[in-house]
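Q: what does this look like with 6-chloroguanine bound?
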Amino acid sequence: MLIETLSVFPEMFEPVMSTSILGRARQAGIFDFRAYDLRDWTHDRHRTVDDEPYGGGQGMLMKAPPIYEAVRSIASSGPHPHVVFFTPCGAPFTQAAAERLAMQERLLFVCGRYEGIDERAYDLADERISIGDYVLTGGELAAMVVTDAVVRLLPGALGDAMSSVDESFATGDSGGLLEYAQYTRPAEFEGAAVPDILLSGDHAKVDAWRRENAIDRTCRWRPDLISSARLTDSERALAEQ
Ligand code: 6GU
């Protein structure tokens, strides 16, 4: 997979794309990453990418022409990219969206700054994504969040010891619940013991404990997920009392 970003701060990306699992996946050729500077597609001395909004109002907007030229020129070589614009007005990013993006051969992420982007630039977008209901100073961090969530789904990115199939929000095994609590040594710490069942060696009991724990935690921290979680009738009866 090739992931490219278009931004006025292309230098923000490199540390994230060369560290830890992303860095290793990139070294291994599982994905390639390039960050472009939007100012390279301006034609004036000041390399201007923003201007005042028609109709007045606060702040500056990103101009459509440099974004248009940049996306056209980046897309003109190689396979046509799936183009994502990052904006707080986009569709909320989810694990399902990450799984969908992970199937693309080439992604181009366009990162807004200032008070927004001239609406006409969105004509180039295949989709608009927001990473949550809060406002960031720009789309770069959102693009990095999405890159992380996508790359870890690519075959080989997590290595053999890890897997992305049995975890919170995966459309697979966990059935749309938060993941169960996990513990490692020591068996007792600061007066808190690891639940006995986890030390019992009884795998059926461990599985049952984990299932119940996942439901409890979801009820407590993310009750909004319960209605769409895959639960048996008796599990649903317990969860809804
Ligand atoms: Cl994608 N951009 C900005 N500026 N703020 C956000 C966001 C994106 N997602 C949540 N907040």
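The first helix runs from residue 14 to 17. The chain has seven helices and nine strands.
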